[in-house]
Each structure stands twice: as structure tokens, then as C-alpha cells.
Amino acid sequence: MSASAVRVPCTVVTGFLGSGKTTLIRHILENAGDKRLALIVNEFGDVGVDGEILKGCGVEACPEENIVELANGCICCTVADDFVPALDQILSRTPRVDHILIETSGLALPKPLVQAFQWPTVKNRVTVDGVVAVVDGPALAAGRVASDMDALAAQGAADGTLDHDDPVEEVFEDQVACADLIILSKNDLMDETGAARANAVIGEHLSRAVKVLPTAHGKVDPSVMLGLGLAVEDDIENRKSHHDGMADHEHDDFDTFVVEIPSVADPEELARRVATAAEAENVLRVKGFVEVAAKPMRLLVQAVGPRVNHYYDRAWTPQDDRRSRLVVIGLKGLNRPAIEKMLAG
After folding, report:
1. Model pLDDT for residues 69-121, shown as the tens digit of each residue
2. From CA 125, how far away is CA 8, in angstroms rounded?
3. Which of 93, 90, 79, 104 minimizes the C-alpha distance to 24?
4. How many CB atoms within 10 Å of residue 73?
5. What are phi and psi of 275, to 5 degrees?
6. Which three-class secondary structure state does DSSP give residue 280?
7. 3-class SS of residue 30
8. Report field, pTM of the whole predicted structure over 0.70
9. In Å, how far are 20, 73, 118 from 199, measured between CA atoms?
10. Of 44, 180, 223, 260, which alpha carbon lies 20 to 30 A from 210's?
11. Tell me: the pLDDT tens digits for 23-53?
């Protein structure tokens, strides 16, 4: 039996903040059939929101012990310290997993992560089945890679060394350039004209023939994403990025912190406060769990710029930390006191 036949395939799911990666992965976990899956979630911040959402699925094919969270920053910057030990942990499981999903943070560049699969301690055990980039359809249709164009403009203006629009645009281009499949998310929120604009933006950044799949609510047949068999680590030099030839890269244009707020009585009022903070400051993303007074259910809050979604994802358990905490991600130099005041109400 060849080495490639015994290696566990891994799918890298990358994409900008709020693009829909977690929704997509949850759908894959819930519809994977008999495949035994494991998941590595790269959190950007101190509160494991994405990991908690996915652990709450209760999917037999991917039990909670097969979900490993990396909360120490961008996965492409901490490959040796965090990613390899996470792989070791997953590969020690019995029964053996059939496939590993890796959800990167919104700021991660997929290429440095894929290159780690060439390391001798990794190469003989796992292979990159494919790289999937999730892109925000409505944002692209509006000519942006994220919903808050003012934040992107401010970030670009703050860095005089850029020879492109802005650092976030560069991250988007690198993610698309490395992809084997592009998921165009939130297709239900675009008309035909908007979808055409979004596809045109993606096409401008593609140097290879890559399928673009429009989706709504992350509903993708797992057979479309899993089992591509591409061994991407052996083809990585054909995926050109802005960071080729650089020994390291930084994400210094971003700030992230956690805001603890009192329990709320009205989720809609909280959503308005989150939207106000996002518009008033250079906030790209807000996510977290909140306690609602007199409610036994946990409120999940997620925002991309001023666009806010919230719903009760499950009941609180005795083991839960019921403090209401929101992760705030935005441009370097965020006015933390002002944001904390707006979110607290």
C-alpha cells in the first residue's frame, strides 16, 4: 500500500471574517454520512465561539473530542507550536478518523499552512485533500471583500508600504489564489446582477481553473468538498501569493479583544448596539455568546460590520460559563473604551 493511500486527507477551509465558514462546516459535519470526521478550529480571540457552535452540533460522525480549538492566534503564524500538536492529538484517536477539516481564522493565509504538510513529521501521516475558500457574495457584489468598506479604506491609509488596495484585499487574494474550490456564500441575498458582479471579482483573482459554487446557508453536498485527492502540498508552488519568498508575515493591522457585558433583556436592542459600534468604529467582526434575562437558552451573536445576526443556539448547561462576552475584531487602533461603552449599553 502506498504512503498516500494510508495518509489521512485534510480539507483546509479558509475565508474572510464572516464569510460563512462555520455555517458551511456545520452543514458538512451534519451530512457526512458514515465518514468519521475531526475538526481543527482556529479561533482569533479569547472566546471559542466557532468551536462552541460546532461542538453544539451533537453530530455522531464528529464527536466533541474530535474537535480541537486553536486560540493562540493565526494558524499560519503558529503552525509548529499549535497545529502540529493538534494533528498529533487527532491522529491518536481510536477509531481512526477518515477526514480532517481545518477552519482557519479569517486572517490566515492558507499557503504557509499547506507548506507545513511537507514537513517530514507531517507528510507521511496526512495530506491536503483540497483548499476551499469561502467568499462573501453580497460583499463582493457591492465591490468589497467585507461589509465595512470604511474600515478597509482606513486600514489601507494607515500602511504606506502597500502596493495594492489594502492588507485585507491582499489576504482575500491570497486565499482565492490557493483555493481548489470557491464557495460563493449567501447567494440567496443577491439578485442575478449582484451574483454576476461577485463572480467577476473572483475571476479577476484566479490564475487557474477553479470551480465557483454558489450556496445559501452553507448547504453543499459533502461529496463536492471531500475526497478531492489533490495532494495540494505537492502543488503549492503553482499557487502564487503576495507573500511568496517572505520568511514571515504579520497581521499587525488588526486588533482583537473581548468585551464582557451584562446580561440583556432585549436581543434586538443588543443587535442595535453592536451595529452602532461597528459603524462608529473600524470594527470588522463581532461574535460571542450572551445571557438573556429569564431565558434558559444561550444567545449566539454574530456580526459582519453593521450586519448583525442572533439566535438561541442551545440551552445553557451547568458547566457553561454564563458570562456574556463578545469578541471584537477590527483595525489596529480600535477605540476600545468607546466600543465597550456602546456594547454595554
Report:
1. 665 544 444 455 567 788 888 998 888 899 999 988 777 788 888 888 988 88
2. 6
3. 104
4. 19
5. -65, -40
6. helix
7. helix
8. no
9. 17, 31, 32
10. 44
11. 898 889 888 888 889 988 875 544 444 555 4
